[in-house]
Amino acid sequence: MRKLVVAMIALAILSVLPFAQTKGGDIYGTVVLADGSKVPGVTITLTGDVTGKKTTISTDQGNFRFLSLAPGRYELRFELDGFKTVDRKDIDVNLGRSISLTVLMETSTLKEEVVVQGKVATIDVRKTTVGMNVTKEMVDSLPTARNPWTVLTTVPGVMIDRVDVGGADSGQQSNFFANGGDQNDTTWNVDGANITDPSAIGAAPSYLNINSYSELQVSSGSNDITAQTGGVQLNFVTKRSGNATTGDFHLYVEDKSWEMKLDPTDYMTSRGFVVPGIDRLYQYGINLGGPIVKDKVWWFGSYANQDIHKRTTTPGVLDETLLVSGYGKINFQLGNTSGDFHISYDAKKKWGRTLLSAAQQDSDSRWNQNGPGKLFYGGLSHMWGELMLNVKAVYSDSGFDLVPRGSKTINGFEIGNDWVFSQNGSYMSGSAYHYITKRKSLDLALDGNYFMEGVLGGDHEIKFGVDYFHATTTSQTLYPNQRILYSYPNSEGNYVAIYPNFAGNVYFDRFSAFVQDTMTFGKLTVALGFRYDKEQGGVDDTLQPYFTWIEPGNAHNGERMFADKISALNIKKMKAPAAWDLFSPRLSVTYDISGDGKNVIKLAAGRYMSQSGNNLANAYLPYRYGYADWNDANKDGKITYSEVGDLWYTEWFDKVDPKTSMNRVQYASDYNTPILSEITLTYERALMEDLAVSLTGFYKKRTNLAWDVNSRGEMAAQYKGYFENGNSYVVETSSNWVQTGKTVTINGKDILVWEQVEIPEGKYYYNFKDSYYKYLGVQLVLNKKLANRWMGNLSFTYQDFTRHLSKDDVIEWNNFDFFNDGQVAPATTGSGLRDIWVNSRWMVKLSGMYQLPWGLNLSGFFQAREGNPQPQRWRIATAQGTRYIYAIDEKVGDSRLPAFWMLNLGLEKTFKLSDKVNATIVLDWYNATNNQIELSRNLNLGSSTSMKGTDWSNAGLFQFGVRVNF
Questions:
Q1: According to the model, what pLDDT value does residue 348 have?
Q2: May I ask the CATH architecture of the domain 131-965?
Q3: Is 360 helix (H, G, I), strand (E, B) or coil?
Q4: What is the pTM of this model?
Q5: Cα(202)–Cα(181) distance, rounded to whole angstroms?
């Protein structure tokens, strides 16, 4: 009863405190005699290479535990009068992993000592999470480009939207998906604290240099109770030092003279393209740390630099990136209290960033990017008997500018080349928009663990926590000359899109709380938990300008235009009335069939919400644009004041409410988060001491959809129009959509296009009630830890991820049959690429290393997968703006690129320079078979380049490097 009262008091305290995720490694154990009886009162001392001494005493049930340990190697000493002292050595702790030990004590009248080498069971019998820990040794030794996104390609089930040969794409974030998760479900964490950018859900606010971190934890199924979503969870753990001053240095170099010969295809030659590749790449950095006060206070510092010069398919046009990062850290341990504080800095400069692809843009239409990011982190942990509490806070200050090459900012306007789309929207020239954003966030978190033994027939670990996250985003978009030209040579269909400059100022809040009881009954472990999350956002004061005509040298330059449709808007602060929240049950069961941790079956079930980010507030911001006729009389492709006609498309201007200066928006009374329901079943078997195999089956269903693909295949919020009726409104129905007789022809078949009869005044956001996504998958993983001179990881994933739509949910039936019952393949929407539809129904991955004699290590990484979908489509202008129409006799996933496969090889030689210093010479061979693989196509029909390639894999090349550890 006393223990239950203490637990209730702890929970009450937490209800008024802010809190965070803790995902370190744990050591659990029981001290026993030869007959199996428990030994209480044993003094257990933990020491490690990255921590001071920690001491505990075994309980009445003989149990002991050390929680939230940093990744590293540890030793345990067990002491009790009348017993032999036991030293358990070489216990390797990884992020998020639970190690269970049974320690045998023997009686003795003498002062004796027993040393046991710490071979740890390969299988974690307590956890059901599906994923993988990427260790520093894997990052160092496996021949993959050393950035977070490319390293993710080694993780079973993960799909990336690009192919990075040798780090050519390290300067741009990749989009990735795994095991039926959505990109909006991805979260990024540093030392367990959430740093996910709510302005670009699924992305990190800065470029984390993976060489500077100790370990990366990746999970993609049966996520822990600390996870809000069911998608990919990433947790980077910063390095820490111990009582010895230690460090490491790395340098990796690539040069175009080390590339393999690869000829362009005939099509590339006809277009004047060249094979993409690396001009040069330098990646270097140093990590160093040591004690300030031995066994109590330590320091650590890290600095890294990446200088990437990538050749594109356009001759003479480079994509160049400079990434500079570093952090300083102090951690301490004083008795039962420990702390960790660090400041990190990540700066990015990029020259030549694309929007479509290198093959679809001229040089002036690209961006130069600049964006520093800072992170301030603090964490404290304390142990009171059976109660452990962790408090964390992280503040992120980031943002960036996308500066177009073809224009300049003058007096608040972007003036220069017009932004031009030609070839039916397949080619971009002139100048892109100028984008400026500042993004700040604060995460306050507290969690705890409370242990009770012998209650209701078992032992209990109660985990609980609360979390508060707040973020603000300001942004400004300056369109070149406040317009975009759509040019169709030799036709009368040219038009100009009118884009007044845009300013945005929004905020986002999330509150989370959870509690979970992990119960152990002999071979059976059951975890039952509940989680609650609520997200809401709002708009801060913002001024949106009216539209002025920009044409230097013309008498109308600077003149206000379309005044009856485009006014200045003075937006006042408001909270969005809609909020997403979910009460989430989680259940997991593990059963150790043989009782020795070598045959374990695991079952997990739960549901998860998605992340709304800034989208609930963004819906109110008036991204205004309209279309006007453009009579290019002299056919020079340049617009003048006299060539502009009336606005024929004004939907986005009409949707602005003059009372609020914001978009007319209504949310359904029950509007809420999409829900992911999940069941996983896993069987794991230890084949030998360091080799285990696992087979996992997945069933996932996403319902209550608030997001689905638009006609471009990109994920977007779903809405109907509504019509104002006095002080109320009427929601649009399917009767407002008709087939007007307009057609497009694909594969020889005429397709009728649906258009709105009446243009609504506002947008009504709602959830699909009868539509859903379904994911079925099976994943086989064979994992060999480093022992007996080799390590390896083999995985095979087969998955079927399908979309099932109901016409009761959807009122626009363009492309309904194409998307319904097809594969879920979200199209990449940014990060330098468009129209990469990510979906592979099968994947094979093999990575490993073998230690040869004479200090040589041979390593390799092989991956193969089904090619991504690449459907053909027509781009047309309708009363609702532009739409893409797809073939009526196909489904998403029917048309695909060729299957992809690639092999990387590595060779290392280590020299021992002294007892404490060794140096390793590295040779990596990327794309060793020199594959030339088509990665994307121009999907838009109606141009000479339709369904022709736009991106190809780089040629094979060598990388030389050196690592020094001291």
A1: 92
A2: Beta Barrel (2.40)
A3: helix
A4: 0.88
A5: 11
